[in-house]
Amino acid sequence: MTSAEAKARHQNLAAEIRRHDHAYYVIGKPDITDYEYDQLFKQLQDLEKEFPSLVTSESPTQRVGGAPAEGFARVKHLQPMLSLEKVEGAEQPTKDEEPDRDKRNRLQDENTLAALESFDTTIRKQLGRAHVEYVMEPKVDGVSISVHYRRGKLVLGVTRGDGVFGDDITVNLRTVRAIPLELNVKKPPELLEVRGEAYMANKDFDALNAKLAAAGEKTLPNARNATAGTLKQLDPKTVAQRPVSAVFYAIGACEGIEFESHAEMLKTLAEFGLPTQKKWWLCKDIAEVLRVYRKEIVADYDEDRDLRRQLPYEIDGLVLKVNRFDDCAKIPSKTRAPGYAIVHKPIPWITPAETILRDITIQVGRTGVLTPVAELEPVFVQGSTISRATLHNEDEIRRKDIRIGDTVVIRKAGMVIPEVLEVLKSKRPEGAKEFDLFKFVGGKCPACGGSIAKEKVSDGATEAVAWRCQNVAGCPAQLMRRVEYFAQRKALDIESLGGIVAEKLVERGLVKEPLDLFDVKLESLAKLNLGTDEEPRTFGEKNATKILEALQRAKTAPLHRWIHALAIADVGETTAKQLAATHKTLETLADSAVLRNILALGTKEIERAEISPRSRKNPPKNDAEKAVREKRDAELKAEIAEIEARLDAGGLKARLPEVGPVAAASVLNYFNSEAGKKILARIHELGIKPENDLPAAAAASGSFAGKTIVLTGTLPTLTREQAAAMIEAAGGKTSGSVSKKTDFVLAGAEAGSKLTKAQELGVKILDEDQFRNMLAGAS
What we know:
Structural class: alpha+beta
Helix content: 25-40%
Largest sheet: 5 strands, antiparallel
Radius of gyration: 31 Å
Shape: globular
Number of strands: 21
Low-confidence stretches: 458-463, 696-700
Strand content: 15-25%
Number of helices: 26
CATH architecture of the largest domain: 2-Layer Sandwich
Oligomer: single chain
Number of domains: 6
């Protein structure tokens, strides 16, 4: 056979094998038997052995995997891979209102559909439409992946990771036969990034477990875990032997191709030979969405006919998306999720299970919050065995009347986190006592023995009361969080030092407080085990070098970054910048006269409000008390005026708009504490002298002199940090929230709720071009 004949034969064999791969893995309808397929594959292998020059990265034979990798490189996504917001399930009717669990679940699910209607109402209001078209798809219970095709060829495969950075698993994804190595299109786009889920089909997962059991190996708990573990194998040959498949349902970065809608995109991806879901619906409005949901998703709540029975893989709900991409672009994003899509899992699909609550243990979080955890008799719930479940806080325990020894119903909240849904009080043992967290821990932090106190804590949108360890500096449970905070991008920006690394540094005893990072050596950091003793994952010299280089840069970082890095309570990024702009060094900040004045001013204003002789909430009991109050009120008025005069004279208070008495007290208390004094001394020992690099005074004549600007979204050419620096240099200040006092909102792509609020309040919106024109002095 000549080289030309071999090349032609190779092309034909490769094309035929790809066609059969597509028929088997994507369409699900094989055209030939397994034996016939194996014979074709062997012919291709033999041909490539005889003519090695025919082997290319796109050849079907290259899917079997190459040499094992040493680790996975971190890759920054061209566009963030955001998670999707989930619908909150309705809790009505309650167990008391409807004791029958099946009926209760169905009624609760029907009530939850109001959230989908509310979502539609919001979307229609934002778009100014009477009707909005939607695409509804199953939510695959798999592992999120991103695959890049350059000029039609697969060049990169990445895990979702944290949404900004993921792991490069290209070599592993190339072994997945459902994912084409080359797109089926004559004129491929320059770049097409497709996003979807890797998964194992139910029958394939069962077969894999049977194979493992027969070999005397440990079986896998569920298909999703099996898929995730497979894709993170360092040896691609192992991946090639596992039955991983994939479906794609979204796009990321694209060059040379555009889509008008999700529906068009899904059809095009299928035409390109990419696996897409066989079941998805294009609905003209929310009414059709609800009709499809009732008839085809939950099938009138008939579990034998619902969508789960029609698909070969596990699903954990449905995804509802606005269909047209131009509409999606007009809808503000949420903090961590796009605004044009939402996820709902039918409540009857959230399968609970009964078990015994054997004990309650207390975990101390990285911010010192004490969280009670239920220790359970192991029970299988939604694909995994559960032995622990969150109890949130003491108030939640009392609301549900949860006691040690109770028989409880467990489910996975948000389809992920195990929680105690309810207590079966009819099975409660005699003598079960109400839970009292303070008594349970003897009034001491279980991690360090320090005192605990009740404080308000935030869970994002709301505040709750929780017990918190007061030993901020010495509690080991809080140390991991402080190390991570110390290294974050807005603080000292120590590259490669994230949560896992911080956790392992503390766990392995290399760091006992953040400043210990400056003593860590390359050898010990490179050998740091990020995994377990059974499955080690070495940090590596390359990553260790990045951290040590970043630590050297941190020694000369400006004052505001060091203030932020110290994690002083009530001091965020903006406050840190204002403190740095009004204090030359950490030492002057530690003994700040202006902060003492701000604290004194706040204290006296509070006292004056409390003893006011004209108070309606706390009126004087008689004339004598009124006279005493009037005298004290006059004294306080004079004292307040004197403090205000001192602050106005220096001009510093006007440059500290974010610093009130609470923040002032936090800063002064921090540096006056033994821990704070030790930290200052340690910084001095390390030869670190952070100084103020911010403008000494706001530019009185700058374009934004005296103006407050809020940043939101992604700007075309500027980072938020760059834009904030330009604003401050022009005499303005940035704020994290929109109010009536906001002068401008600088908005970029995917702007969120801040943009919506600005529009509601009539605040002027600037894009980057308008912003630059104003800086240049243009109108």
